[in-house]
Design goal:
The complex is a heterodimer of chains A (322) and B (134). Chain A is α/β, with parallel strands linked by helices and 322 residues long. Chain A contains 13 helices and eight strands. In chain A, helix 1 crosses helix 3 and helix 5 packs parallel to helix 6. With 134 residues, chain B is an alpha/beta fold. Chain B has five helices and five strands, in the order E-H-E-H-E-H-E-H-E-H. The chains are: A alpha/beta (322), B alpha/beta (134).
Chain lengths: 322, 134
């Protein structure tokens, strides 16, 4: 085992912090460490929290961390915020709501920026989950803004995914229905002292009940909870529902270590191959200047993008252009 | 993997000072310069700031103080970083800092102090020149 891997398994905070950064920055050598860590993973319970900006995800995570700590469980938090598409910079502010845990050695909070690289968020977040897992965290909470395929994919890696909404955002539910609502294991209406809570509740209930056939076959039926995270109301109930879901996974889905289940492994390996291919191919053709050359040719009208793409990609993956 | 080291900085508000407009403007300027900026929020102790900075693996901590306690809070932050063998994290500060306080702060290990009126561009330029992603 490399020094780094050993430090991670022993819970060295600086080593973990640095490795997650190396993963994010795509530093060489990272893959070797991750390979060595993999056997130490698979023990953490992963929670995905998603929902539109401003619904209170970070506050909710903060309260959940407190409850889990009362049970003597260690927690890793990955909080994802968007990267500016213009400057490439980011303001990572989720931590503001969770600062009271920063002196607690049982809690490790890490902010990640989406960075907008191809498929990279999914990959680097999953790798960061593995690092927290290998360092021995009992629970890992991934908080992400529920927009974009990458972020939906991230929460799919979780054992239990919690979709957070607030009252009066009926259209918002519409907007996320097609993508993210389908992956929700628990729905939480936050800020439930506001007008429109019951309307939101019945909207969600209607939507969930449309899948009644699935539940009759013994599938998990997502509960809908009301909460006011800022006052710690409804959070205990949320944790109880998470326990129930965990029990359900154990009893009906071949154990809660679902990340080792065939369908999850299939998906994660598929995603990993995709992002690796992009990285390798795009990296190579960018480095050699072939990419820029192709761009210029298309701009000058010398070729079309379809031909250029064939010429760039096929040799890079060892297929002759014919 | 595409090697792409990004500068990560933490903008922090130590002490009981509740004015963070300056800190938020600085955070925004850093973002626009392409840095990843972790904002700590208000009322942080140096201990909390240092712990968060280590977990976030930042290259620099920018401390903002407008309430007069900088003579304790700034050097204490540097001291804690040393205790944690994290003195490679650069510390700079800004806010209402009297001229006479600047030399002792620098002696204590705060690399630069920015007082009111400093142009954002100058601060960003200083960071780019003095803080290298590790």
């Amino acid at each position: 085992m490399t020094d780094v891997a050993e430090k991670i398994v022993n819970g060295d905070v600086r080593a973990v912090a640095r490795l997650i950064r190396d993963i994010d920055d795509g530093m060489p050598g990272v893959r070797q460490v991750l390979k060595e860590l993999y056997p130490s993973t698979g023990n953490a319970y992963i929670l995905g929290i998603t929902g539109a900006p401003g619904v209170g995800k970070s506050t909710l995570v903060d309260q959940m961390v407190s409850h889990l700590r009362k049970r003597d469980k260690t927690v890793g938090v990955l909080a994802v915020d968007p990267t500016s598409p213009f400057s490439g910079g980011a303001i990572l502010g989720d931590r503001v709501r969770m600062q009271r845990h920063s002196m607690d050695e049982g809690v490790f909070i890490r902010s990640l920026a989406t960075r907008g690289h191809f498929g990279g968020l999914t990959q680097s977040t999953r790798s960061a989950i593995d690092v927290f897992d290998a360092m021995g965290k009992d629970y890992i909470i991934v908080e992400t803004v529920g927009v974009g395929q990458d972020e939906v994919d991230v929460v799919k890696s979780a054992h239990t995914t919690i979709i957070t909404v607030i009252p009066g955002m009926g259209d918002d539910i519409q907007a996320i229905k097609a993508g993210i609502l389908e992956v929700g294991d628990i729905f939480l209406i936050n800020k439930a002292d506001r007008e429109g809570t019951d309307k939101t509740l019945s909207d969600l209930r209607l939507m969930i009940n449309m899948d009644h056939k699935k539940y009759e076959e013994g599938n998990w039926k997502p509960p809908i909870l009301k909460a006011q995270a800022v006052f710690d109301k409804g959070v205990k109930e949320l944790l109880e529902e998470i326990d129930k879901h965990r029990k359900h996974l154990t009893e009906h889905c071949g154990g809660w270590q679902v990340r080792r289940r065939e369908d999850k492994v299939r998906q994660e390996l598929g995603d990993m191959i995709k992002s690796r291919l992009i990285e390798e191919v795009l990296g190579k053709i960018t480095e050699t200047g072939d990419f820029d050359e192709a761009v210029n040719s298309i701009v000058e009208g010398k070729t079309d993008p379809y031909t250029a793409c064939d010429k760039l990609v096929l040799p890079a993956i060892g297929v002759s252009t014919g | 993997m595409g090697n792409n080291r990004r500068v990560r900085v933490m903008v922090a508000k130590p002490g009981l000072d509740g004015h963070d407009r300056g800190a938020r403007i600085i955070a925004r300027a850093y973002r626009d310069a392409g840095f990843e900026v972790v904002y700590s929020g208000l009322h942080q102790t140096p201990e909390e700031i240092v712990e968060a900075a280590i977990q976030e693996d930042v290259d620099m901590i920018g401390l903002s103080s407008l309430a007069g306690a900088h003579k304790y809070l700034f050097p204490r932050t540097v001291e804690l970083l040393r205790e944690k063998s994290a003195e490679d994290i650069v510390v700079c500060g800004g806010g209402i800092i009297p001229e006479d306080d600047i030399p002792p702060l620098k002696e204590a290990g705060i690399k630069e102090i920015f007082t009111p009126g400093t142009a954002l561009d100058d601060i960003v330029k200083w960071v780019k020149e003095n803080v290298k992603p590790r």
